[in-house]
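Schema walkthrough. Field components (list of strings):
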Amino acid sequence: MNGPQDLGGMMGFGPVAPEAKEPLFHASWEKRALALSLAMGATRQWNIDASRHAREKIAPDQYWSLSYYEIWIEGLMRLMNERHMLEGAPRELPVLEADRVAAVLAKGSAYNREVPNKPLFKIGDKVKVRNLHPTGHTRLPGYLRGVSGNVMLHHKAHVFPDSNAHGQGENPQHLYTVRFKARDVFGNASNDVLQADLFELYLEAV
Amino acid sequence: MPHDGHEHDDHSELSPIALRVRALESLLVEKGYVDPAALDVLIETYETKIGPRNGAKVVAKAWTNPEYAAWLKSDATAAIASLGYTGRQGEHMVAVFNTLETHNMVVCTLCSCYPWPVLGLPPVWYKSPPYRSRAVIDPRGVLAEFGVVLPETTQVSVWDSTAEIRYLVIPIRPANTDGMNEEQLATLVNRDSMIGTRLAGLIA
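Field assembly_structure (string):
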């Protein structure tokens, strides 16, 4: 969706302002917000794509005024409310136990999948980003629409966020790192380059 | 195990968001959806075990061991896993090497994707609109704000982490470090140099 999360190339947000000797957390509640988000993710009532979509559905004026952990808490509330998890009798959920934390974090969850179909593109191919404006979740940043670049890496197939976020299955798609010239993206005189990781369904042959 | 989220008994000292998070935690514990001890372990893990010192060891090894550097280039996930850094938000790693010709810099314009096993939790600026918006359209302006001014002959190469691939920048080894061992070199590798917004060696 063309939501507040799609920030690439926007202007007016001011300087980056890195903080000298930044603490890992700026308040105690941030620690709990992080841990609650991770622990509730482990109950497997949603996937990572659904959680990203819950955050990007926050209205732009609110999203841009919240700190990142505030965005996480707002997203977590929405995920639980959508599933009516805070009402009624407790449900039987897989709960992350303290002694399992290290193993669960170390394992992570791989997103690559085997698919029968061959990739449409190979390394070096010129590709163009489709002009897509889906109303649901997508990982196609708006600033790349219509721009052509070259396939640099092929990661085989990965879970497709655009369907996975909506409970429509993993629908794995070939994933490529595509290199663009900065001047082709932003119309400037730069000799710099940028790369993005793009699913096959976002791309067409040139 | 006590944790400092609950060190203040006077609720009037807490901000609305702090109260909201506390209430949420109480509710989720009461429902049996979260184990409070697991929350403490999660926090402790990112406070003490998983952070940019991990990534610094990867970089120092790449600087001193050409075979390791080659492995990192061809299969970063496996090369990094060999040092014990695996899992959440680092399942699919790519290492990008800075040279005099190319300076790499990583961003996630769409959210806050970041290689947790090697760098830990991202700093606030990495997750905030100024960096996410400008890193792609004005990378040299962003670098200047970090005190990094590159010659025009060095190409800036920005990596927007839009899927589940996570990028680790291998900065250039600082000059006059020939006599240093891996452990000493790791102290020269600051977090931001592995995101690509600073150079190694500037901040010990």
